[in-house]
Design brief:
With 330 residues, the chain is an alpha+beta fold. The protein folds into 3 domains: 107 residues; 141 residues, Sandwich (Jelly Rolls); 73 residues, Phage tail protein beta-alpha-beta fold (3-Layer(bab) Sandwich). It contains 11 helices and 18 strands. β12 and β13 form a beta hairpin. α3 runs antiparallel to α5. The radius of gyration is 27 Å and the shape is globular. The two termini are 39 Å apart.
Amino acid sequence: MKNYLEDNEFLAAYFQGSLPEVELTEFEQWLQLNPQKKAELEEYKLIWSATAALDANRQQSRRWEKLADALNEEKGREENAAPDWSPNLLYRIAASLLILFMAFSASYYFSAVEVTTPTGDVVTIQLPDGSTASINAESSLKYNKIAWKFGSRKITLQGEAYFVVVADGSSFSVQSDQVTTRVLGTQFNVYSRGNKVLVSCFEGTVGSDINGKEIEQVIINQGEFVSFQSESQSSKPIIARGQLHPLANSVGPGWIDGNYYFDKTPIGEILNEFERKLGIEITSNPEIDTIRFTGQLKLTTAEELLQIMSATAGLRYIKAGEDSYKLEME
């Protein structure tokens, strides 16, 4: 999907008010689907305004000087003359403010942290408050150290991550597609792929709500999970609640230690997870992908996993290449 904020010519036309109506409508719709971009757009507006001040028409200088002289003469202020608000002074003030703003913006930009994990890899990082985040394969986690320091403790997640939050009053939010999860001293997992977000709580309590929607916050207690499933990013998700597998609740999500507990999980989701973890390719068909699988699987080799799933669900697998497999109905 196009990121309009990376197109300088487009932004210039937007701030000048010269965008065609069709493009303006598309841009506004894009902002509604990407509410996290609105704050970034406001920063660009500030930069644009400061730059416009520097480029102000300096031909007005004489008019400013005459106006200031007339005011001083009228009020008879000789000893306590009014400040010289001439364009030159305003220019210097605007330039100083712009330098400070640009310095802060540069500092903010270079304080951005982004961790992206490749196929078959898991990375654990420490957040500024001492909490930890374990990031599953093919995932991306972002936050800003300066924003965090000044109270805007927001993490953006695409993929899946498991958070262990320090129990000292620290709190932050995790934004994933349409759902924002807010936490305080807990352990929880956020899965965000496609049009599905799944939040699981392993300790304490978390609250999740749908971004930009006027709904009450969904409270998730220890041992529970809540899924948010939608047909598209613009449609309202369907919310479903369930209980974690007792064993899973005691050790955390399966991808952390390789012990998975599935309860009526579509086989398509399971295959996608094993592809990410093992760096393999598994082809099937929509009929197989929708079959529900219940059971425990330990992450070993592709052959062992497919053999167990095939025996349980009435399927068979074929090795199509060095790292590729095909799953078929018996």
